[in-house]
Specification:
Blueprint lengths: L1 E6 L2 H20 L4 H18 L4 H17 L9 H19 L13 H10 L11 H7 L3 H12 L3 H16 L4 E5 L3 E5 L8 E6 L5 E7 L3 E9 L5 E3 L4 E8 L1
């Protein structure tokens, strides 16, 4: 199955982008090749660009506090395990503390590293990190893998608190939805959303062998899915066949 996720607001869109970047960062740092570590550094700079928005840190802190207040509201409910509730609340407290202790914007300490900022200024230029442009960076790429990994791990600590908080918030959001089987007629699907309830994320699962690509659009009133198929001309064309997929609406 292939999972597609569609955010209904800018905040969740940014969360998903940061989650995607951090997952890529972790995967690249774990490898040994210098080229992988080059793109790990590039990914770290991308995360700094996305997360350096002035209200990004405060948004995550507010959402963590909101989740804590909501969970504490379940105390005394006989259907809820107090022990499990305590564990989740303690987890939220840890994420909140780690993030609140960071000074300034995400990655701000890295901006004080002239060597890193020199790489950052040239890494988006095609071929801008060649050995004749950045000889010190070229030398770093020839260091043993464990040395490069140790440096990357140290630099990644500046984005880890916000990444862990966002991963937790997205997991809580995803768990709030119930999947349902949906049938697409002639490649088109539309569903009116219930009033009085605000959805933040749509999750759609398609069989990997279906060959279909969903084009999703939505707002607070309605969600629409149009199924497309990649043709021999390497372009997407609207599908007119019936199909089924799994839909989850998360609020």
């Amino acid at each position: 199955m292939i999972l597609y996720e569609y955010p209904f607001n800018e905040r969740i869109r940014t969360y998903l982008r940061l989650e995607h970047l951090f997952q890529r960062l972790v995967a690249l740092v774990a490898r040994d090749d210098a080229l992988d570590h080059h793109f790990a550094l590039h990914t770290l700079f991308e995360m700094m660009d996305v997360a350096s928005r002035a209200d990004m840190k405060s948004d995550v802190l507010k959402d963590l506090d909101k989740q804590k207040q909501m969970l504490n509201g379940y105390r005394g409910n006989p259907a809820i395990s107090e022990q499990a509730l305590d564990q989740v609340v303690a987890q939220i407290d840890t994420y909140f503390t780690n993030l609140s202790q960071l000074v300034g914007k995400t990655g701000q300490t890295l901006t004080e590293n002239d060597w890193l900022m020199g790489i950052r200024s040239r890494i988006s230029i095609p071929g801008g990190t060649c050995e004749f442009d950045l000889p010190a960076y070229f030398d770093w790429q020839h260091k043993p893998a464990h040395v490069r990994r140790a440096d990357l791990t140290r630099w990644c600590q500046t984005v880890q608190p916000i990444s862990e908080g966002i991963a937790f918030l997205l997991q809580m959001l995803r768990d709030s939805g119930m999947p349902q089987k949906v049938v697409v007629t002639a490649g088109q699907f539309q569903q009116n959303l219930p009033q009085g309830r605000t959805f933040q994320l749509l999750r759609l699962r398609l069989p990997a062998d279906s060959g279909l690509v969903p084009e999703i659009s939505g707002n607070r009133l309605m969600v629409s899915v149009r199924m497309m198929r990649l043709g021999e001309d390497d372009r997407l064309h609207a599908s007119t066949e019936d199909a089924s997929f799994e839909l989850t609406m998360c609020s």
